[in-house]
Amino acid sequence: MGKRLKQAKEEAIAEIDHYRLQREKEFRNKQTNVMGSQGNLSAQIEEQTTETIRNLTSSYQKNKESMMKKLLNITYDVKPEVH
Known about the structure:
Elements: H1 2-76
Protein name: V-type proton ATPase subunit G
GO biological process, one term: synaptic vesicle lumen acidification
Subunit structure: V-ATPase is a heteromultimeric enzyme made up of two complexes: the ATP-hydrolytic V1 complex and the proton translocation V0 complex.
């Protein structure tokens, strides 16, 4: 009877170890998928941010001169009025 109990215990431990290894493998796979996705997402966000900054800088450079002229024209166009 003791021998059978010992054998059952060993089988149970082997089953538990096998299950644990299987679950750890699944966890590592999921973790790799999630972390890989986050890394990829981070790269995409970085790329979008860089593109947005590039577009804003370009727009600023393109419109800077005309806006300065408009502002100066408004400033220089003084119309004296009686209040």
